[in-house]
Amino acid sequence: MTPLNPSLELLAPAKTAAIGREAILHGADAVYIGGPSFGAREKAGNTIEEIASLVEFAHRFRAKIFVTLNTILHDAELESARKLAWDCYNAGVDALIVQDMGLLQLDLPPIDLHASTQCDIRTPEKARFLADVGFSQLVLARELTIQEIIKVRAAVPNDTVIEHFIHGALCVAYSGQCNISHAHTGRSANRGDCSQACRLPYTLEDNKGQIVAFEKHLLSVKDNNQSDNLRALIDAGVRSFKIEGRYKEAAYVKNITGHYRQLLDEILNERPELHAASSGKTKLLFTPDPDKTFHRGATDYFSQGRKADIGAFDTPTFVGLELGCVTKVCDKWFEMDSNEDLANSDGLNYLHKREVIGLQANVVERKGSVWRVFPNEPMHTLAGLRVGLTISRNRDHAWEQALNKKSAERRISLYATFAETAEGFALTLQDEDGITGSASATFEKQDAKNPSEAEQGVREQLARFGNTDFELHELTIHWKQPWFVPSSLANKLRRDAVEQLEAARLAAYTRLPRKAAIEPPAKYPEESLSFLANVYNKAANDFYKKHGVRLIAAAYESHKEEGDVSLMITRHCIRYSLSLCPKQAKGVIGVQGQVRAEPMTLINGSERLRLEFDCKACEMHVMGKMKKHVLRSAPPTVLPVTFHARRS
Known about the structure:
The protein is 23% helix and 27% strand. It has 648 residues and is an alpha/beta fold. The protein has four domains: 7-170 and 222-284 and 286-292, Aldolase class I (TIM Barrel, Alpha-Beta Barrel), CATH 3.20.20.70; 319-404, Thrombin, subunit H (Beta Barrel); 412-508, no CATH class; 528-625, no CATH class. It has an eight-stranded parallel barrel with strand order 1-2-3-4-5-6-7-11, surrounded by six helices. The chain has a six-stranded antiparallel β-sheet with strand order 9-8-28-29-30-27. It has a six-stranded antiparallel barrel with strand order 15-16-19-18-17-20. The protein is globular, with a radius of gyration of 29 Å.
């Protein structure tokens, strides 16, 4: 049996190729990015030319580029998706992240395939199946506990990489199992166009019509932060650590990538049997702080078990860090206590009647132990601003300015040998990956006028790697005696050796091939699939038939009929978060037996969503009508399928 992969991969998002380069400079071992189409973030696309330029930059550091081809596809789109896969392969892309199983029926290039989190990978059986049909890397459901990850890891071959989200926004539903957006707006999350209905305010009614919660963001959860769980995740078998955020700007990517690079480097220093998945060391020119960039509060979700405080019920926006309390209010300014330094243009906010009120600090002045803030907005427009109110900062202007500048360097360590030859001198560079580049020059040797300074001069000249990707770790000099070596000669040897090394590194880089599927074809763990399997084209239908599935329903996006179905399946339970769970009441004197998991209703405007609670599975189903839709793009070919409903 092959040992478990010892390399740890920090995987960062990129909305653009420029952000992807920053992610690599700030310590990412791999970057995932959207191509021109078919990515699950519709508004984060990039041209093949832009991706190719990012690939070239990434491969200098042995970093990898993954392209998201992870929407479900119409039959009419399959050929375009196939061509896109080949374009990505020809551009040097390392892997495609895939949701639609129809792609596996096509003539794809020999490119590595990763199973998207949209594949809803939360059981060992599903994970093993995907590994057996040719996926080398599996992006697990965010909801899994560490114990569940251990079981998945044990079920798949050791050469299958387990990837897990460690930071960023959380979809409240199991990925790929949410159709609320399409039900309400015709915008499909499975097609990359989610309307984020989960971030809306809802009023919650019980089964008697009584209001339990009024206009709360009850489906909105805090943002993922696994900073404290990295060691446990490594021990569970996770090898790729994924940061969410393909819609995020460069400052977020720099900050969060740098934060996790530091944490993983600490672990690598503790555990020499592990190593980073790419080359070079990152030097950050700022201090990372996850609290400084957009988040809705932090949670480690279900990693260590179910918790009641995972919700961001008050607001889905970024409130930031508390600064202090208002001490005085006047017609043009207000004062506040704060131990933090403020700056002009800081973004401040406060909560008023369930609404976050934002303001910009036009000018700030320190007045003894307090800060006087002159807002950019007229004071009379700032509803509810009063003495005693807590003020938070969600934009630290000075800190952001630092990130707008050069904020990281990444260098590959070199071991250099400078030696005399029969004709002159030679320089050999060997990098941390064991790759070498050499240069030599003919030069008539001359005695050094000052032998004590000759070697020091050579060392100083050969250490100057400037704007290259390299830095000198160690230099060995082999000569019979100190010789005179002109600076121009040393510089030429260094430049020529670097050029040879760069060419050798490029020639030595190899991409993983596509993993072969086992034969005979693996059997899918179930014999029937509901609309939740997202089968949207004939190729996907044929794929599941080949793997033993007998009854296959079409994806939600294909339905023409009305019906009450699960629009969302989630491990987040509103009853639990509001302390209304029967399991919580168990053993409580005077309460036990009186709390039942009866259905409830979420209301937003004219939309009413019935909540049903599957206590055995500890899941919540958000029920709604299966509506007729006007598709926003060409309709798929009608599939000869049988509809067979199931809950999960």
